[in-house]
Request: fold
Amino acid sequence: MAHFCEHMTFKGTERRGSMKILGYLESVGGDLNAFTNKEETVYHAAVLKDDIDRAVDLLTDIVFNSTYPQAEIDKEVEVIIDEIESYNDSPSELVYDLFENAIYKGHPLGHNILGSADQLRTYTTADAKRFTARYYRPENCVFFAYGDVDFGRLVKLLERACALPAGTAPVLPIVERRIKEAAEGATLPPYVAQTLEKHMDTHLAHVMLGTRSYGIGFDMGGYYLTALAAILGPVRSVAAFTATNDPDRVNTRIGAPGFGQAYDVQVPNVISATMQYANGVLGTLHMNSDCIEDEETCLKIYGTEGILTMGDPNQFGAPVYLQKPLCEPVEFPFTHGYQENSRGLGAAEMAWSILAGRDHRASKEMAYHVFETMHGIMTSAETGSFCQLQSTFQTPAALPAGYRSVGDWSRKEESALI
Reply:
């Protein structure tokens, strides 16, 4: 319904017909368009700053005052159906909907925003007005302006354009309604792992692999586990605990989206794991996204002759220290380039390796093993048992000393890898 209403919003309001809507901004060199995804519909305009009044007037008019004439609905439905057919002929896009429908089955996030032809042909003016009366409300909208615009003037324009008629019934804002629905049991159903196949007359295969995320572990854990894997090699088994502290809470981060609103934490926000590496080393991983202050991130390796302390592998340029018994820590000099906040080194080394016909260091085998390690940590915490890993990889050789950045990609840099 949201995507359908997006199309129909351009078909006429109480003040304008469809041609006047399309020409109102085009006549002054402006542009008007819209898009819908699974969480929002966005109507946007681009105009010169002197025409901001026009943009505000038109955007608020089509959003709040569209009439959705049935004759236009009957014609536009066929346009949307053509869009659906075109989409169904594009496996690279269709695979995303099939995947999300499986991951979020039984929840609105799993629905295709385009709908079906049979469903679209049942829509009427009353359906569109009922939907927009519920959702297309000033209290459910965000108006965003970017450019040389006087903010005070913009606020006055919006206050005048968005004034509701006297006697308009209030509606529960979307965020509050979603919290209320969640409290009443309208939560995401349990996920059941499955394999889906759709055969099409094409020479290509489109494959997606995934599951519902575990939060901080799969978001940030890969950086740290990859750094350890590159140094210590593959993991043999893991044992872990997780916790979800204060699942029902209010957003108290000032300035953040949703400040002051209630929300439900559905994934672990504290993870503590022990990993047994194939070479016999024992390692620990601790992650906490619920700390009152950001944790001090570091990697430490306790060796037979000293302690090596490294910085955050999600950042760049952090110093590396070696401390030996009865000695002060010694900072290692940097022997490689790319200490600034850039992420091109691994991809460049991979490209050069492919061209040279040699194994690259950021291998898919290591990436898969890191993913399995994180998945094993979460599985161990859920089952209360050790998790034995099945995959492995060849520990990559360290980059040779002297690999320096000189500002531009060049063969001089690549030669340092050989």
User: Anything to note?
Assistant: The radius of gyration is 28 Å. The CA atoms of residues 260 and 301 lie 41 Å apart. The longest helix spans residues 364-383.
